[in-house]
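Sample log: IS1595 family transposase.
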Amino acid sequence: MELSEMTTFCLSEVSETQWIQKIHDSRWPNGFCCPKCSARHSYTIRTRRLPLYECSACGTQTSLTSGTIMEGSRTPIRLWILAIYLHSKPEGISASRLTRIIGTTYKTAWLICHKIRHAIAHSDQSQLLQGLVRINFAQYGHPYNPTVFRHPQEQPLLIGASMNAAGEFTHIKIKQAVEECSYPQFTCPLDKFPFIRKHVDPQATEIVAVTLKYSKDRNKSLLRICQNASIWINSTFRGIGAKHLQAYLDQYSYGFNMTVLKQDAFSSLFNLSMTTSALPYPELIRKPNIQPKLRLQYAHYLKNAS
């Protein structure tokens, strides 16, 4: 379905009932299953905006959206589906643009966007790099910085990729280098082992990691992917700070991997959204700033240098 057709369909009231049925079928493809006692029969309560399923064996009531990223949301289902569809497109969508399309407040649209990215990030945790693995230093942000001190707008990254025998990347991960920075205030080689422990299969055939910024052995293809990710983030979202950068890097990696695998990104993202629990708004905004002191350290250096 084309973007204009999908948008028109989701914005119509008729689509709400159809999407409710699709969510039901996605959650329980073999019929309802009680999360408490595993009974297969339920009574449907339709007095609410969304159907509620009451187990005929133990009486437990289960919401249609419980255990999904939509749990507790008052936004109509059809608008959630449209948001998921727009996030599955290669160009992505910003919260401000989503606000104009679905007609919600900016806060609601921002929360929807980050809950969808949370589903992507949650799935990414279980998909490890395998076989021939290549890891390279990268960065987000390219401020003019002639010193050994890291500029506050310069975010060090590590990009890892599974590679086939033909030298083609089949799966990528781009991660902020938080644990890997032994001295966060300096531009220095990164520690590769935290990334390998978290994101590489222990049975990987071969691991080659280049963690020095200007190494002659750096993989230019991986660097080009990170540059494209930076261009996408800057053009679509007008730049992102360190606090939420990882969510956008995960979204870019997801889109890249779906393209390489030639899979239906919308169907995949729809299923992820139906199997990932919601991330509450307070938890999203409580994310720590991973480099709170860098700006002060850099300012102190410039003052002394002058």
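Observation: Strands lie at 42-45, 52-55, 61-63, 132-140, 155-163, 169-176, 206-210.
Observation: The longest strand covers residues 132-140.
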